[in-house]
Amino acid sequence: MRQATIAACSSSFPKIKRPWRATAVRLRGLPALTRGAQPAFRATGGLHATALFDAEGTLLVAPRGRRPAQRDEKVLGHALRAGWLPLDRHILLVSGRVSFEIMQKALAARVSVVAGISATDWPVSPA
Predict the structure, then answer these.
(1) Which neighbouring-strand residues pair with 61?
(2) In 10 A of CB 17, how many CB atoms?
(3) pLDDT in tens, 34-92
């Protein structure tokens, strides 16, 4: 069933021709920027984080939300309302696993780079 869903998703959106790629150096700096924009996550490490960056690594939006799906929808909804689509030169950073649903939304918004980072890579700030 999952294969049929992935196949349907792939055929629903055109392939990104010439996808943009972020450098490892750029990606390594993004978690710190995300932590700075999300004080509750920074203080506890127990909340998931989602953020959207432009090609230069500038943080564009890092919404608050309890559920991962809620935050992903806020990020991509904000990008749609702001007229930023397609996001073919942007980075979507999420904490935890990168689910099928996140990838499906990213594909619909034409995001070229989706990165996930585990909780152990998000150090908690001292209280």
Answers:
(1) 52
(2) 6
(3) 877 777 666 665 667 789 999 999 999 988 666 656 677 888 889 999 999 999 999 99
Token code pair at residue 102: 């996140």
pTM of the model: 0.80
What is the H or E stretch that residue 91 is in?
strand 90-95
Terminal-residue alpha carbon distance, the chain? 46
Tell me phi and psi for residue 92, to 5 degrees: -105, 115
- The Cα 87–Cα 84 span in angstroms is 6
Domain boundaries, the chain: 20-121
What is the CATH architecture of 20-121? 3-Layer(aba) Sandwich (3.40)
